[in-house]
Protein 1
Amino acid sequence: MASTDRSEQFTATGAARAGGSGTLAGRTVSRVGFGAMQLERLRDDRAAAVALIRRAVELGVDHVDTAEFYGHGFVNEVIAEALRPEDDVLVVSKVGAEPASDGPLPLRLAQRPEQLRTAVEANLKSLRLDRIPVVNLRRADTGPGLRAEGDQLVGMDDQLAVLTALRDEGKIGEIGVSNVTPDQLRQALPVGVVCVQNAYSLVARGDEEMLELCRAEGIAWVPYFPLGSAFAGMPKVTDEPAVVAAARALGSTPAQAGLAWLLHHAPNVLLIPGTADPEHLRANVEAGALTLDEATLAALDAVPTRTGDIALH
């Protein structure tokens, strides 16, 4: 069976830190956080959505990832309703897209500086905050997801300039970047990047160079799609025979084994697995307590990287 992390670190609510302790935006946080995108599935049961956030806090989760374009503001509103000041939860949002009700997708790109400012203001309103602790700039000139074209092709320096101005105004605490290349990360370093969100998992490790750069610079690596993609035809961590075997040996689920590998792979990894189900939430948090021995790690490290394209997160 899985062994447990006996860390004596605790959250503001007194719960043990989920997955042990990491650092984000200069704060000590649980290494397992919560990605809120899937809360939109509970639009018809707002009480259940609020209860899920409350349960995450009870389990030791103290950082939540969100965006105004998740459910046209619904997800942010749920987070604002659920969280209390004494929870001391660090909220991370992102800009670079906006809700869209008149297109094939529920969102569209919003990369221009004035759109980024508008998005920050919208996040502040729906989250009921005076300042967003961390805002990630989601770029769109490389995969996966929507690609910028026309007036959405914006230089990164112009985007960082408006986010820096918003930080100077006190509306943003710290700046992160998402869906970037190593060169773009280096370009952004002078503004003080605190986290990077790129698609990354056991089966999609093309960004290993950037993960190491983040580790060297003291930047949190916060992968999205940490178990691969749920989209049809895309590789999934839970389909890998080595992951299934590891899970059997650990007494865990394959998903838990895949998440545990990420935490063992590098000390600056923080996780934001998402779910709308309380049992999946509990399982995701418990993945942080798994210990992988050297043989298991070696077997998982040997899993080949897969390729494919996935939708904008």
Protein 2
Amino acid sequence: MSTEAYQAKYGKMLDPKEVSVNLPDGRVITFETGRIAKQARGSAVAKMGDAFVLSTVCYGEEKDGDFFPLTVEYREKSYAAGRLPGGYSKREPGRPSDEEILSARIIDRPIRPMFPENFTREVQVIVQVLSSDKKFAPDVLGVSAASLSIGLSELPFEQQVAAVRVAVVDGQNIVMPTYDQVAVADLDLVVAGTEDSVCMVEGGAYEVSEDTMIGAILAGHEVIKEMCKAQQQLVDRCSKPKMELKPKFVGEEHDKLVATVKEVVWDELNKDVHSNMVKTDFYPAMADLCAKMLEDSRILAIIGEGEAQDPKLAADAKGIFSELERTAMREMILNEGVRLDGRTTTEVRPIEIEMGVLPRAHGSAIFQRGETQGLVICTLGTKADEQRFESLQGEGAKSYMLHYNFPPFSVGECKKLGLSRREIGHGHLAERSLAAVLPLPEDFPYTIRVVSEIMESNGSSSMASVCGGCLSLMDAGVPIKAPV
């Protein structure tokens, strides 16, 4: 078949459709589809200046379950900056760098809530930086590209999402700032949202006021609104027909199951919720009550017994139990002002601190808040100990690092040891929290490494890492500007 005949039958193979958004300073963000990666379920490109970010989405077969297996991958290619990878192998490594993992998490967080609650197909979003701009980071464009690629696919997606970076320099809000502007900014913020609302904020600041923070968020959201409208224009023109999503629970049989589960467990469940158990007692109690419920004759009459048991109805019964557990806790908090451990809504968990617990460490501290415990260690080194890294902007070095470890025993589980994306993300959060109070390198010419070992967890272990990290720095004699 000739090219002309093929195009007459199927259309042009390279047939891009574009929409554009103007930023307040006159720069333009362009969204495109129909030219690259057309066999993906959805593909889209976000462009600004020389930056060219591609997102693709694919999905698997429908599966029963209560878990949404969404995977977001973000990759920066060396050729995007006209560079060769460093080291002996001139190929990008298989494992993403910490920076790529952090960017993937920024993309994941705002798009995940836009999928329906009962959607359980496996979904994979891959965002690749194909061309980078020397002036600004391309990572936030990945949120918009990912949102658009999903919107163009058959996947159900509630609203289009976009993200921008906002820097505050000399009191001015700058949307999509350059690297140089971020370097001198009082506030560096990533804001993500829909046309209606803000759904994610992440950033760091040098002790700015609440008004400055709110102003930056609102300035970012004004641009986000226009970006979401532009995405929707492409979705309206080019989207594939959306798949039909079956309701999670339907029919009289389910209604009967809901009523029966509540009849069987509610009184005992409510009693356990009000008993102020510690976590290590409460979780087993809930598991035992759920197992007891599944063996009750009233439940077995609905879901069946032995080989005749309907696995979907059994799974539904467990899901109903979980919803009742959540309802009982929520009602206790809202109606009685009491939380699961017996505290009121204004009480903080008990806090205990020990300093200098490891004799050979330069600085160490245990920070315990309720059932969350962090053992945090500070080690000082010379300039030769700095961490070398390579990015699209070239090579660089870090003289301050905070690493976060979350071993399975901290929550009483048996799991394979390994560095998870969550550990990298929490470490980055805590690292940024303390960076603003560290002394300048010329005043304190040491390499600083803080390691947070989470020994127990029931509540924010990243917060414990910040508090414990601050204590370990003080124990090591680092002249921080203020406690955090």
Protein 3
Amino acid sequence: MAGALIIGVGPGIGRAVARRFAREGLPVGLIARTEGTVRAAAEAVEGVPVVAGTADATDEVALRSALDEVTGKFGTPDVVVYNAALIRPDAPGELSVQGHMDAWAVNVVGAITAAAHVAPAMAERGRGTFLITGGMPEPKRRYVSLSLGKAGVRTLVELLDQEYGPSGVHVASVTVAGAVEPGTDFDPDDIAEHYWRLHTQERHEWEREAFHGP
């Protein structure tokens, strides 16, 4: 029994994506940094089996363990969504080296860890989808670490596509060009539709980036 696995199921996009895939009858695996966050996300999902685990995306051992917990119960996922990010304002020169390393670890390296852990099994099976939440279509000087991270996400998507795409794994990002807020042009439920659309695309239709703007 495969399903959808969402890493970073906060109250915005992650939770909305979980609900969107659940509406299609897919079992859902949820991973977040804190028990309270993942519990709230699990309570928001209805009608399908749910497995919830906690892990900091920057902790390789914990993240791999949480991924194993979900795949141990559901099998290799049909789709994995990496939605973890460290979003904070910082201008050039404001962050320490460690601050930049911390941001990069969440925004990019956690996605590499997750992909390396689940995508090979998808490739062996011959199908699967790996999606990363992107953003910052244009770099902003007041969001240096986030701008760098989202640029890294675009490059990572290209690299993962080169590695796993030929074996049937659709790798793509969803670029969100604004602050997520219910009832606005950036309503998380509207954004979640991009993830479902990318997952259901036929191979000849594959996109590597979906864009959500105002």
